[in-house]
Amino acid sequence: MSVARKALEMTKAATEAIVQRAETRYEAHRQEILRTTDRMFAGLMIGQWIFAIFIALTFSPYGWQGKVKAIHMHVWIAVFLGAAITSLPVALAWFRPGELLTRHVIAAGQMLWSALLIHLTGGRIETHFHVFGSLAFLAFYRDWPVLLTGTVVVATEHLIRGILWPESVYGIPNPEWWRFLEHAFWVVFCISILIPSCRRGLRDMRVMAERGAELEALSENQWRTSSVVDRAAAETRGDR
Amino acid sequence: MFVMERAPASDKSRLASRLAWIAAAAWLAAVAGGFAFLWRYKSTPAPGGALAPERWPAASAVARAPDRATLLLFAHPRCVCTRASVAELARMMARFHDRVEARVLFWTPADAPRDWNATDLWTSAARIPGVTVLRDEGGREASRFAVATSGGVVLYDAFGRLLFRGGITAARGHEGDSFGQERIASLLTTGAADRADAPVFGCALDDEPPARMARAGTFTTNRGGKR
After folding, report:
1. CA separation (Å) from B143 to B129, B203, B217?
2. How high does pLDDT run on average in chain A?
3. A64 with B171: Cβ contact below 8 A
4. Which residue among A83, A145, A168, A193 has its CA within the 20 to 30 Å range from the CA of B70?
């Protein structure tokens, strides 16, 4: 085998090693982001549950019938429906972090939290900002299909409620047929910016992984070279 | 050299994955059921919410405006759902203050302590320009106007003829436009509306609703149907 061919094969092998190393680094980084975001959402879900109970206890603690008071339905809803929404996302974030199902369940759960908080605050328009804040948080995954799951859940909830009870979604009893599209437009507007941002984030991660792998290979080569030199120097010293 | 390879899934991990998917489906169904329950609770009107008489009751001690319409909102001072009705009344008064006079009558039990009505709801209602806030001792006026539910509204013209009876929120404790508001706005601006009533959402004003209201039994839904 010629020296040139041998050098070419060695270069090819070194390049493949760098590519594989870059892939490993990229996957490890991505897993770290997914797991960290799962954990963040687990904490957020529990926080939202406590907040919902606080809201219910503060603003609607009792329902009345004349002089007779009873715990308001909002309190029970906040406790039990809140617990139901929180349960699976937190369990999956705890037991199966970083998995595909976990982040999609979390996306659905986060959007359901938006819906519940809107109900508990009496349909206040300000609470609807929770939807857009949640979409921004879901972008932390840098996994754009998660944003689609969130959008589908919020759109389905709006669609069903809009058909059965339009006033609660659109604020007017007889909305135009296209009113659903107006609401959907703003969500699509939000995710149309977030999705490219997620993809750019992944591209940046890949570039970082490749540079890291190159640096690793370089420092490994340097270490090999210096150990050869060291050995040669030691042998020279020993010969003396 | 180390290369990360995905290990083939074991039977145990495949089973765990399958269980997770089943749990996700069950979770989604349970949460959807919870929301359905919540929607039903919020969108179910009170029975016999407002069945006001066609003429202003002669026995009423509440003053009626001689030159414009008079709107009465009956409220339980501690009903949190009625906050939305008061908020909507404020919006309506901002729009129609020159066409209607409004009074909010707070239901007060006969043996209630002095501070029974000292609630945020009373304060909010008292702050609305063009609105007079009154105590309805023992629910006498509510009985005269046959209003059994907090948030119930009656609207009479300057001649004492009933124009509208019902609620001004779209659901229990839910702010936003509603059929009731739309109809009142139409009555005040054009003198006509598709219907003269709307469902009422809120707490019961009395421990025991008056017999005539209990007999009435039915209530109007948002679409005008009966339940």
Report:
1. 27, 15, 16
2. 88
3. no
4. A168
Residue in A59, A77, A84 closest to B30 by CB: A84
Specify if A228 maps to a domain: no
Q: Does some domain include residue A6? A: no
CATH architecture of B69-216: 3-Layer(aba) Sandwich (3.40)
- Tens of pLDDT, residue by residue over B36-60, are 999 888 888 887 655 789 999 999 9
Q: Structural domain of residue A48, as residue ranges?
A: 17-222
Find the residue in B nearest to A19 (Cα): B3
Minimal Cβ distance to B38: which of A81, A99, A173: A81
Which strand (E) or helix (H) includes residue B102?
strand B100-108
Residue A86 and residue A49 in contact, taking contact as beta carbons nearer than 8 Å: yes
H/E stretch holding B162 = strand B162-166
pLDDT at B123: 94
pLDDT in tens, A150-188: 999 988 887 887 777 776 666 566 667 677 777 778 888
* Residue A2 is assigned to a structural domain of this protein: no
DSSP string for residues in A108-140: HHHHHHHHHHHHHTTT-GGGGHHHHHHHHHHGG
Residues of chain A in contact with residue B205, where contact means CB-CB under 8 angstroms, are 66
Q: Could you tell me if B133 and B125 are in contact, meaning their C-beta atoms sit under 8 angstroms apart?
A: yes
Q: Which of B42, B107, B182 sits opposite A173 (nearest CB)?
A: B182
A13: exposed, middle or buried (Cβ count in 10 Å: 0-12, 13-18, 19+): exposed
**CB contact, 8 Å: A43 with chain B?**
no
The residue ranges of every structural domain in chain B are: 69-216
Question: Contact A77/B34, CB-based, under 8 Å?
Answer: yes
- For the whole model, what pTM was predicted? 0.79
Sequence letter at residue A62 = Y
